[in-house]
Amino acid sequence: MWKRKELKIKAKQVVKKNYWTAVVVCFLIALLTGEFGTSIIGIWQAEDSMDPNYVIHNKNIIIQDQIKEEKIQEVKEKKPNTDKIKLNLNTTELKMWDMIAANLNNITKSHKYIFKIWDAVESFNMNQITLGIEFLLIALIAIIFTVVIADPLIVAGKRYFLKAREKNSTKMGIMGEIFKKGNWINVGIIMFFKNIYTLLWYLTIIGGMIKTYEYRMIPYILAENPKTKKKEAFYLSKKMMKGNKWKTFILDLSFVGWNFISIFTFGLLNILYINPYKVATTVELYIILKNNEIRE
Question: For the whole model, what pTM was predicted?
Answer without folding.
Answer: 0.76
